[in-house]
Amino acid sequence: MGVALVGIAQASGISLPVTAGAIISGVYFGDKLSPLSDTTNLSSSMAGADLFVHIRYLLSTTLPAFMIALVFFLALSFMSTPEVNTAQLELLASELNEKFRISAYLILPMFGLIGLAVLRMPPLPAIAVSIVIGVLIGLIFQSPEAGQGGQRIFGYWNIVATGYHTDSGSAAVQALLSRGGMESMLSTVWLIISAMFFSAMMDRSGCLAKIVQTVIGLMRKDRHIFLGAGVTALAGNIVAADQYLSIVLSTRMYVDEVQARRFQPEMLSRTAEDFGTVTSALVPWNTCGAFMSATLGVATFSYLPFCVFNIVSPVIAAFYISTGLAIRQRPEADALKRSVSETELSPR
């Protein structure tokens, strides 16, 4: 979708860095709030948080950041009047119409996925059902590129496994369609597993405990532990150059201290997302920054100033931590505080 929007922006004479910034802002807004997102599932599981409670906690930082980004891009859209190159857009539409039957039923897999997510179905079966719907639509409505009968079914399985590849004369269509498949996600899966191995070794060797105790010694208030977790997540993106390692480290390092101070685990998972997930695309040598730059064809430092959502999210989170807004402890911790207060106020 992002590649298609960049192509449309290029044909319309719209600034590519601004377009890339808007796309990345929207991508990470959806990524943070989707129960099917890899980072959302990873951060909540590593912090010991309930997935849907974690998403509810994310709303307090994510929605304000999104509204600020929306106002920013609306203002830019009113200030600019690009000249649209309709010929290039028509060529792109013509190429797609030649290869596929474009109709409203093609959005059924997406609606199915959204519906199952709303019904709180776990991510794997929800994605599997959406894939089955997509394959059935392809078998029934699309041209038999993959062969006939059983060979055609195997062809669609091959597309699911290794991605779709087309020999189009249009570079825009080629870049848009020749991608995907489970195979393309293997490097991400191995990266997550490696990050968890690294975190476990750091934990068992005592390195994590030493680092955490040093950070805690610098804190004036209990809630500042989340500021430490946020800085750790940000440093993970810069030093380790990977989003998943950033999330694993920032949650694994502080999860015991968060429990000891009776904070809700969703506070830690939210912090990992606010500081770790969204800033990964802002670092040129980070895997996410490199991917965004290569996919959209825009240098990281060029689109960085326009990634408003990604910049504002950690700022809002840091403000909440500093002021104590939207910082919640477990119910038993609140009850304990009230009990202590009543004991201190009672006459002796």
TrEMBL record:
The chain crosses the membrane at residues 55-79, 100-118, 124-141, 153-173, 185-203, 224-245, 301-321. Keywords: Antiport, Cell membrane, Membrane, Transmembrane, Transmembrane helix, Transport. Residues 26-324 form the Na+/H+ antiporter NhaC-like C-terminal domain. One of its GO terms (cellular component) is plasma membrane. The keyword Transmembrane applies. It is a multi-pass membrane protein. Its main location: membrane. GO terms for molecular function: antiporter activity. It holds the Pfam family Na_H_antiporter. It is found in: Cell membrane. Belongs to the NhaC Na(+)/H(+) (TC 2.A.35) antiporter family. This is Na+/H+ antiporter NhaC-like C-terminal domain-containing protein. It comes from Hyphomonas beringensis. The lineage of its organism: Bacteria, Pseudomonadati, Pseudomonadota, Alphaproteobacteria, Hyphomonadales.
